[in-house]
Amino acid sequence: MTVPVTSVPISCDGSWMTRGHSSTVGATTIIGLETGKVLDTEVKSKKCKSCQCWATRDKNSERYQQWEADHPMECTKNHEGSSGSTESASDRDMFLRSVQHHDLRYTKFIGDGDTNSFKTVFDSKPYGEEKLVEKLECVGHVQKRMGNRLRSLKKRNKGQVLSDGKPIGGQRRLTDAVCDKLQTYYGNAIRGNKGDLVEMRKAVWAVFFHKGSTDTKLAYTPLLQCPVVPLPTGTEGWQA
């Protein structure tokens, strides 16, 4: 009996043995978006301890030749290239085997903003020209990038006097607390207007204009009033 192949949306992310992009080992996981279950994992390694150990042995010895004949089946080195590329290579391999191993097509890809991973998967065309993989953005990562850029802006301008004669930080300025709020409101504006790009854009800009206004001086015109952004239940509104 032929088992039908099911198309499912997934999220994927990688982790490394050590921080930064110098790790020799990386692990990547694919999780079903609708079930929350792990569908596949892949470990990539740039080195093999056994290979390193036997590299200094007598290559003409009988023991070495026996090891050399048996080792390919158990060698742990399976990746050439940079440490950062282990995630994209793992994603590609898991997509390519999804039908054979799980009778699944991962047709919608939610990543962490790493464009290399999606491009590597897309270019491999795991399901042919007729079934191209679609990329979806993770709002959590998008709003996190906004917060990171605000904090980076604050750090770059630390100690400088801006055009209004005041520093960028301090009371009623761009503090860490304000960065956190703007990050949250930005994410809420996106989530509250899914599927409506025009309203999403208005809501995102309204966050900027709202936080730049005071009771006596508005940073926006009557044509761009702060809209009421629909928010998930229990979520703090950005208007606060």
Q: Order of strands side by side in the largest beta sheet?
A: 3-2-1-4-5
The CATH class of the largest domain is identified as Alpha Beta
**H and E string:** EEEHHHHEHEHHH
What is the CATH T-level topology of the largest domain? Nucleotidyltransferase, domain 5
Strand content: 15-25%
InterPro entries: Mutator_transp_dom (IPR049012)
Protein name: Mutator-like transposase domain-containing protein
Domain Mutator-like transposase: 7-208
Pfam family, one: Mutator
Summary, kept brief:
This is Mutator-like transposase domain-containing protein. By secondary structure, the chain is α/β, with parallel strands linked by helices.
Report on the structure:
InterPro entries: Mutator_transp_dom (IPR049012). The protein has helices spanning 49-54, 62-70, 85-96, 98-102, 115-124, 139-156, 176-191, 197-211; strands at 6-16, 25-32, 38-45, 104-110, 134-136. By secondary structure, it is of the alpha/beta class. It folds into 2 domains: 6-46 and 81-136, Ribonuclease H-like superfamily/Ribonuclease H (Nucleotidyltransferase, domain 5); 139-224, no CATH class. It has a 5-stranded mixed β-sheet with strand order 3-2-1-4-5. Helix 3 (85-96) packs parallel to helix 5 (115-124), helix 6 packs antiparallel against helix 7 (176-191) and helix 7 (176-191) runs antiparallel to helix 8 (197-211). Mean pLDDT is 85; it is low at 227-231 and 235-240.
Q: Layout of helices and strands, plus pairs?
A:
Elements: E1 6-16, E2 25-32, E3 38-45, H1 49-54, H2 62-70, H3 85-96, H4 98-102, E4 104-110, H5 115-124, E5 134-136, H6 139-156, H7 176-191, H8 197-211
Parallel strand pairs: 1-4, 4-5
Antiparallel strand pairs: 1-2, 2-3
Helix pairs in contact: 3-5, 6-7, 7-8
